[in-house]
Amino acid sequence: xxxxxxxxxxxxxxxxxxxxxxxxGRSRRVEAPGRRRVWRLAAGWALGxxxxxxxxxxxxxxxxxxxQQMKIAAAHAAAQQRxAAQQRxAAQQRxxxxxxxxxxxxxxxxxxxxxxxxxxxxVPAAMEPLGQMMAGDESW
Amino acid sequence: MAMAEEIGAEEFSAVVARHRAQIFRFLLASTRDVDLAxxxxxxxxxxxxRNWASxxxxxxxxxxxxxxxxxxxxxxxxxxxxxxxxQTRANAVELxxxxxxxxxxxxxxxxxxxAQERVRQVSKAVEGLSERQRxxxxxxxxxxxxxxxxxxxxxxxxxxxxxxxxxxxxxxxxELGGKQ
Lengths: 140, 180
Prior knowledge:
The structure holds 2 protein chains of 2 kinds.
Chain A: H1 3-29, H2 31-121, H3 128-138
Chain B: H1 2-31, H2 34-50, H3 61-75, H4 83-87, H5 109-127, H6 131-141, H7 147-154, H8 158-175
Helix pairs in contact in B: 1-2, 1-3, 2-3, 3-7, 5-8, 6-8, 7-8
């Protein structure tokens, strides 16, 4: 083998040995921090999980609260509508009753007036002399 | 029985202490990824620990460990568990980065720059090798393993190892400009 090639292979060997020694020392030194890194990673994941879970819970709670408020508002509105409808119905009934009473009164008055009129105008023929007599008495 | 297990555990700890850096180095040069090399090194020793009782010393512990490391490195792309690493291949650096670590030694600044350039050229050639050629090349010229050891670690015959090595060296030589 050519001396130059032997030299190059020897230098390559020295380089790999030096690189390996440096890397080997480094990889052994970082063993403990590596463990710490694992813990840090685990803590990070746990914190992330709690944050996500907390966020999701808050969202669900918020949604639930919103739903509850919506239900309460809907129930309140329905009660208001029922009350208004009842009030309207009562007013209509009162109005109708008043109208009915007025109509009844008018009907009674009409009937009485008609009776008076009928009584005053329609004197049977057999009663005509008596009527004349009463008319003569009225002249007294 | 407990005593035997204790001795086995002690032996294994000694093997880990002796060979861990070398296994890491081979995997780093193969994968060019520090994190992946560290993971595969751990996997290698985990596997070795599980099978320690079945290790009969037919080859050296280093050869046995290297064989496990080579298989792990070969399988890691196919392994479902390693899909993550495939996606994070961005972590891999160019092997040429190794040139920055070249010790300056007695060299002048100019000689150091030339040496770094040569290392970059060799690295570029190594990156272009097939997986098998690269494994054989790294075992021979970085780990300085004998052909017989490489053959045992890779499960190839010595003749096949020689052929792969020859092709790998030819490519490196071509990358260096064919001057050699």
